[in-house]
């Protein structure tokens, strides 16, 4: 296993994205459909923020388990916009950043995904899951 490998080798390139004009109901649908936990928010190819499933859960009534839960969540989601909920002061990495550099950033911060950006253009995202899978492949 090589820790000097560029993050571009393990990042997710085929991204599910949102725009700032999308709504949180759409975001929730994408999280569930693609079984993902982070969605970059973009304007064209430029990243504007990152929305996590955790961000969405913080504003929902996820603990309210009854037949009206979906309706309640939809009402709450319609009270907020994506720009109000997303993280906009992002830490990002260049595609040439090493896996070790990315692992150090994620280990020292309180988030689990980093956008991979070249200039202002989003090229991919790397998550703690991507890193764990890479490290596990190195154990074989």
Automatic annotation (TrEMBL):
One Pfam family hit: CBS
CBS domain span: 11-67, 86-140
InterPro entries attached here? CBS_dom, CBS_dom_sf, Diverse_CBS-Domain
PROSITE patterns this protein is in? Answer: CBS
Alphabetical UniProt keywords: CBS domain
Q: Which Gene3D superfamilies match?
A: CBS-domain
SMART domains assigned: CBS
Protein name per the record: Membrane protein
